[in-house]
Design a protein that fits this description.
Distance between the termini: 56 Å
Order of helices and strands: HHHEEEHEHEHEEEHEE
Radius of gyration: 21 Å
Largest sheet: 8 strands, mixed
Number of strands: 10
Structural class: alpha/beta
Low-confidence stretches: 1-38, 318-344
């Protein structure tokens, strides 16, 4: 008796096709071109080496000197574009960096506000294609948040954490959690050190944009982190907020014109990031993010900036009149308990 031909080869081809199409869909939704490309081969000095107990003024001075030397090195190598961007980062000699490394795409951790007296500290974690060459757009958001926070609560500070090699906008890494896992280890070790630099018992909040939300969601945090806000997120790689390695309150918001809403919220073969964080099923606390686009969350005067500032300052959520359980929550000025986000 003849055997029926198996459909397995076609099934394999079909599965491969589905995965290929999925990768293309995610890439089309997540990968957005930017105007400035990274400069991975620009020469630069090794970063300044400081002891764990170095005073903040000494740390700032050493990193600013290293930044100036990196600008001179880039200029001598004929990389005038990178040199100009580094000089802009110096901010006329007033920039304060906890970390600066001008090699390759670069790393930088910059402080805004008086960190030593701050009892509310926001840590901004950026998404893909944030490098020294695109740093000014990241800095602009940090400045806007710093101004918004200190207008209401002077003992606030913002830390712009470009502490990892962000994936390129056109790369396989932007579609997986691999780069985020590496970054999460760096961020997780940095946060307790940052808490020791701030005022005693300071509250730290992680504000995580786009691919940065994948990083934050994979970062194990201690009690110093009270809140984690995910915005413009393609997903986290987790099915629910309860699965994240943190006891912090987890928030999620998305602007009305953010193209990230078109990302397929699935994960197949390690590609994609799964459940949408603004989906009620994920279990995050929703916050009002206004009508802006993917790059608008930290723009001055926006509803999203006000909401994120409220999260950092400890404002409590109060549902809008007539809103459904799944609708975004507005932030009132009332204090909230230290822990309100349940964990399974």
């Amino acid at each position: 008796m003849s055997r029926r031909p198996t459909a397995r080869p076609d099934g394999r081809r079909s599965g491969r096709l589905r995965r290929t199409l999925l990768a293309g869909l995610v890439a089309a939704a997540v990968v957005m071109p930017v105007s400035a490309a990274a400069s991975p081969n620009v020469p630069a000095p090794a970063p300044a080496v400081l002891g764990e107990g170095a005073a903040l003024p000494d740390r700032f001075a050493a990193n600013l000197a290293n930044l100036s030397e990196a600008a001179r090195t880039a200029e001598k190598a004929g990389r005038t574009g990178r040199a100009a961007k580094l000089r802009a980062m110096e901010a006329g000699g007033g920039a304060r960096f906890l970390v600066f490394d001008g090699r390759g795409k670069g790393r930088a951790i910059e402080v805004f506000g008086d960190l030593e007296s701050a009892d509310r500290v926001a840590v901004l974690v950026p998404g893909s294609d944030t490098t020294l060459d695109t740093y000014q757009r990241f800095r602009a958001g940090a400045v806007a948040l710093d101004q918004r926070l200190r207008a209401e609560h002077p003992r606030s500070a913002v830390v712009a954490w470009l502490g990892y090699d962000t994936p390129g906008t056109v790369s396989p890494a932007v579609l997986t959690t691999g780069r985020a896992d590496e970054a999460a280890a760096e961020l997780g070790s940095f946060l307790p050190r940052l808490a020791r630099m701030a005022a005693p018992q300071a509250r730290l909040s992680l504000l995580c944009h786009s691919y940065g939300s994948v990083v934050c969601a994979r970062t194990a945090t201690g009690s110093e982190v009270t809140d984690m806000a995910l915005f413009g997120s393609p997903g986290t790689g987790a099915d629910s907020a309860a699965q994240l390695p943190t006891r912090a309150r987890v928030w999620a918001g998305r602007g009305g014109a953010d193209w990230i809403s078109g990302v397929p919220h699935v994960s197949v073969g390690g590609i994609g990031f799964g459940t949408d964080p603004v989906d009620p099923a994920f279990g995050a606390l929703p916050f009002a993010a206004g009508s802006g686009g993917h790059s608008d969350y930290l723009k001055p005067g926006t509803e999203s900036l006000n909401s994120l500032a409220g999260i950092v300052l400890g404002a409590s959520p109060a549902a809008r009149t007539g809103s459904s359980p799944a609708a975004p929550l507005a932030l009132s000025a009332l204090a909230v308990p230290e822990v309100s986000h349940a964990r399974a």
